[in-house]
Amino acid sequence: MARAPAKINLFLHVGDKRADGFHALQSLVAFTETGDELQFAAGEGVSLAIDGPFGAGLSAGADNLIVKAARALGSERGARVTLTKNLPVASGIGGGSADCATTLRGLNSLWGLGRDVAALQKIGASLGSDVPVCITCRPQWMEGRGEILTELPPLPELPIVLVNPGVGVPTGKVFAALTTLRGVGLPLPPKFSGAADLIAYLKDTSNDLEAPARIIAPVIGEVLDFIAGEGALLARMSGSGATCFGLFANADTAARAAAAIRAAHSSWWAMVSRLLSASGTICK
């Protein structure tokens, strides 16, 4: 079994549109212990089976990023892939991109292709902007439209609560409603000596997509207010939404916050996890 950890934009600043039509981005990206799970086995052709709490209604056909990733590796070999979809779909935490990246890693190993990280990231960039950063599951400084990556020192392993209110926020609409851009001029961050350093740094940043996403889906504001009210050190939206996160000082506080959120809003998805500091090896 291989993990496809949730991708968290600890901050996300947006710059002007590039010549290719994409906005320039700058983000500090981290990953969590929570994620989807994939299994790979030899088979005839490439087949995909999907289960899990968020698997219903997902296409397992040629348009699925997992199937596209298998084809993009350029091998004639077959595989049976099983996806257990634990993360909400199209929710700003890179679920589909992480599944795609994990497929590139998993089939590269199953088929003995020997592609290195750089080669897998190059293939990933052809499949989606968030795929390259998901290849290693390590903290990274992301720029360009997502293809320019700098690996960072380990981050503090802070408890995190992920909350999704069950609404869809189309990425295109969020960017179309964007009026305020922080730009992409930040230098690389320092090495954080602990949680206090990281939180202080993040409080001077933002997610530029949060304001337009809250206009499209006002419930995002409710989610952020609830997380903040439960003692989070920082509450913020990830990616283009609608998943929000709170960083907490300890696991007990995070667990109590998640329980309070579920009790007050039974239709919201709330999950306690932990930031992955750095695995030291490609994630398994």
Architecture overview:
This protein has 284 residues and is an alpha+beta fold. It has two domains: 150 residues, Ribosomal Protein S5, domain 2 (2-Layer Sandwich), CATH 3.30.230; 118 residues, GHMP kinase, C-terminal domain (Alpha-Beta Plaits, 2-Layer Sandwich). The chain is 28% helix and 28% strand. It has eight helices and ten strands. Strands 1, 2, 3, 4, 5, 6, 7, 8, 9 and 10 form a ten-stranded mixed β-sheet that branches. Helix 1 packs parallel to helix 2. The radius of gyration is 18 Å and the shape is globular. The termini are close together. The relative contact order is 0.19. The mean pLDDT is 95.
Morphology: globular
Low-confidence stretches: none
Q: Quote the CATH topology of the largest domain.
A: Ribosomal Protein S5, domain 2
Mean pLDDT rating? 95
Whole-angstrom Rg: 18 Å
Element order, helices and strands? EEEHEHHEEEHHHHEEHE
Number of strands: 10
Fraction of residues in β-strands = 25-35%
Query: Domains counted in the coordinates: how many?
Result: 2
Total count of helical runs of at least 4 residues: 8
* First and last CA, distance: 8 Å
Largest sheet: 10 strands, mixed
Helix content range: 25-40%
